[in-house]
Amino acid sequence: MTLSVEMITFDCADPDTLAGWWAQAVDGSLNAFAPGEFVLVQRPDGPNLGFQRVPDPTPGKNRVHLDFHAADMEAEVARLVGLGATETGRHDFGDEFRWVVLADPAGNAFCIAGE
After folding, report:
1. Are 57 and 13 in contact (CB under 8 A)?
2. Bridge pairing between strands 86-93 and 97-103
3. Organism's domain of life (predicted)?
4. Are residues 62 and 109 in contact, defined by beta-carbon separation less than 8 angstroms?
C-alpha cells in the first residue's frame, strides 16, 4: 500500500479566519465544509490544508510545521508578514541553506527557505 499526504490539519479556535489567511498565503481556495467548525484550503499542487475548531488548541511549540521554498525568500517573507505573519527567527547552514521561521496569525510556526 502507498500512502500520499492529502491534507495537513491545524487545530485552532477560529477555523474560518485562519483558513482565510492561509488561503491568501498559499493561493488556495476555501471550502467551508462546516463553517465555524472545519474549513479546507484546497491547493492545486497539494497537500490541502484543513482547519478544525477545538476548544483548547495545543499549547507550546508546534511538533509539526510546514516548510516552503521560495525563489526570492526575502520577497516572500515580506509578503507573508504583510498579510499578518510574524517573523520569529532566521537560520542557516552556512551559505548553502537559509530559512526564516514565521508564525501565522494563530501562532503556528512555518518556514520559508530559499536563496
Report:
1. yes
2. antiparallel
3. Bacteria
4. yes
Across-strand partners of 42?
A: 29
DSSP 65-81: -EEEEESSHHHHHHHHH
* The one-letter amino acid at 63: R
pTM of the model: 0.84
Write the CB contacts of 36 (distance below 8 Å, at least 6 apart in sequence): 15, 16, 53
Do β-strands 38-42 and 66-70 pair in parallel, antiparallel, or remain unpaired?
Answer: unpaired
Average pLDDT, the chain: 91
Cβ–Cβ contacts within 10 Å for residue 102, how many? 23
Task: Determine the average pLDDT of the residues in 18-29.
Answer: 96
Neighbours of 68 (CB within 10 A): 16
